[in-house]
Amino acid sequence: MDKILEAIQAEASGEEIASLALPESYRAVFVRREDAAMFEGVASPDKDPRKSLHIGEVPLPAIAPDEAVVAVMASSINFNTVWTSIFEPLPTFGFLDRLGKESEWGRRHALAYQVIGSDAAGVVLRTGSAVRNWKPGDRVTVHCNYVDDQDPTSHDDSMLGSNQRIWGFETNFGGLADLTIVKANQLMPKPTHLTWEESGVNALCNSTSYRMLVGQNAARMKQGDTVLVWGAAGGIGGYATQYVLNGGGIPVGIVSSPEKAALLNELGVEAVIDRKAEGYRFWKDEHTQDDGEWRRFGKQIRSLVGDDPDIVFEHVGRQTMGASIFVCKRGGTVVTCAATSGYMVEFDNRHFWMKLKRLIASHFANYAEAWQANRLIDMGRIQPLLSAVYPLEGVGDAALRVHRNDHEGKIGILCLAPREGLGIDDPEKRDRIGEDKITVFRRHGG
Ligand code: NAP
């Protein structure tokens, strides 16, 4: 592995990189099948990822003809890292077992451990015999849409594929490791002006937000739209906010601290609501929502931007869905991709149908959408949300911070990269785009 890192840092040619021997095993973050019941009886907030995430050597599997081995320089914590590590809403080994039954190559995934992680920036080391567009030495980022291209249902929009999966969550050999195995159609060019850790945090959240707001498959925001963004300084919310600003929309950013509010102001968001400071409680008790609170929330939004939201960017789920449906404009759209606070959501259907609102489901992004989202990062139109950086050994602490909502934007993880700040290919472009713009979240983060 030392030789691989040396070659990457010396910017060795593709031929040189292709000639390096691959190790038989590699360092990785994994969960164990035998631990799947370890948190039984523990309340969700008390489940500690540090107890279930292991770091150690795992064997390097053979690659299929359509796959590549990538040396991972940096990766990130996603919320799915938290879900996997606390075995909620269910252990991910069932996904691996189903994949294991699909094919000979799928069988590799059904193991007693799962290497997790759904983001990566790094360098291609090897490609399978069917890979056409990528070669050893290519500097890449990896998106997490794992698609079976032999399934006809994958060929309109690959997110509609009946066996579509998220790499490193519903598959093995994920990105929180020194090496990863990916399908060639997960690869995208690394943004040339960014460091490894700035490049390695974007693909999952950025592509998700792109599809939800910009692409053809979900809310299709237009200029002048008012867009309410929950968790506007968090992972998907931080990219969503930038898409609203870029696309001529008017963001209303919801956050839970003055620090996050200041961060949004620096991004250019004028209408910010600190939900904690305002004391919003949309549920009176476990079973009863408070429509008075919905009305108070709606009034505050109107007082800030003079209008109801054309689009609500929703991912919080149970705690907020009733309010989201209520405050959405007549004929407007609530777009959802998640349910962090609980997936059994409840809303007042009268406000929904009488005002002709729409609720649209969205999930990650197809390759074309992920590519467009990556291109916008490469052009410097969307900035990375890197706010903090941990070594691979600190993955449990980093995942705990995300579990506790004690972070802004995205937390980066250094894998093979020995320190921060490496990997910038085009420093002049970085200067043109502006260090200040690129590092807004890093300067606010810890
Ligand atoms: P994140 O970085 O933790 O951000 C989530 C934000 O939600 C937090 O910053 C927090 O903002 C807000 N929030 C949390 N609890 C809340 C509550 N009770 N009420 C209101 N706001 C609350 O996570 P993320 O990466 O953005 O992911 C968010 C969710 O989307 C997760 O459930 C994740 O699994 C899911 N996701 C789905 C996809 C997909 O493809 N379907 C892709 C990415 C993520 P404040 O505390 O500042 O308000």
Features:
20 strands; 2 domains; 446 residues; seven-stranded mixed beta sheet; globular; Rossmann fold; six-stranded parallel beta sheet; binds NADP nicotinamide-adenine-dinucleotide phosphate; Quinone Oxidoreductase, Chain A, domain 1; 21% strand; alpha/beta; 31% helix
Break the fold down into its secondary structure elements and pairings.
Layout: H1 2-9, H2 14-19, E1 25-32, H3 49-52, E2 54-59, E3 67-76, H4 79-85, H5 93-100, E4 113-115, E5 120-127, E6 139-142, E7 145-146, E8 165-166, E9 179-183, E10 187-189, H6 196-199, H7 203-213, E11 226-229, H8 235-246, E12 250-255, H9 258-267, E13 271-274, H10 275-278, E14 283-285, E15 288-289, H11 291-305, E16 311-314, H12 321-327, E17 333-336, H13 349-353, E18 358-361, H14 367-378, E19 386-391, H15 395-403, E20 410-414, H16 427-433, H17 435-438, H18 440-444
Parallel strand pairs: 11-12, 11-16, 12-13, 16-17, 17-18, 19-20
Antiparallel strand pairs: 1-2, 1-4, 3-5, 3-9, 3-20, 5-6, 6-10, 7-8, 14-15
Helix pairs in contact: 4-15, 7-8, 7-14, 11-12
Bound molecules: NADP nicotinamide-adenine-dinucleotide phosphate.
